[in-house]
Amino acid sequence: MKANELQRGNALIKYIKKTPIEYKYTVFDYEPGEYFGVLHITLQLHMSSPQYIFGRIERIKSSNSKRVPIIILLLSADITSASAASAFTTLQIDCMATGVRIIPAYSPVECAKYIETMHFQKSEASHLRNYRATLEKTKKELSSRPSEVDAQKLLFLAAIPKVTKRDSAAILAGRSLREIAQSAVNECTAKEKGIGVTKKNAMKDFFMQKFN
Question: Name one GO molecular function term (predicted).
């Protein structure tokens, strides 16, 4: 497995026991297997330097790497506190908006197990292949020329009970996921055609429970 030179001395390295580690320059922290690229941060670091992870994501995007970017987030802060819960919620929504998957973990051992599992996944997992096929289908269903991130946002909202893809497209028009989530929680979702009280309540329940 390849790891960034800056990861030397990281506490979780000693828990990666199933494969040798080769240090090299990479835009990721770890490159397990052939398919994934991992960024490893702690919630405490994110709370003190919230722009750090997005700078890393921008560098990955500009590198044109073919690896799937995944953030393994070590929950090093008390997730029940208001500040930590808010930071965790916002990070998940922002990562969804940028097309980056995030995996929360509660210990360095758990982080290492996730990385080892990815390393031994020699090809793209079937559920990821199916997801990519769904993304392509969704892009074709959308008007104009949507990006993959546009399709991801639409599918994300369409996962809310009672909310259809058509509803999602109307809700997304001109707004970010963060704005939509905040509006839903504050019960001030815009009056798009077909978005009635039942769907608004479903959105509120989704965002209140999904990320808290």
Answer: damaged DNA binding
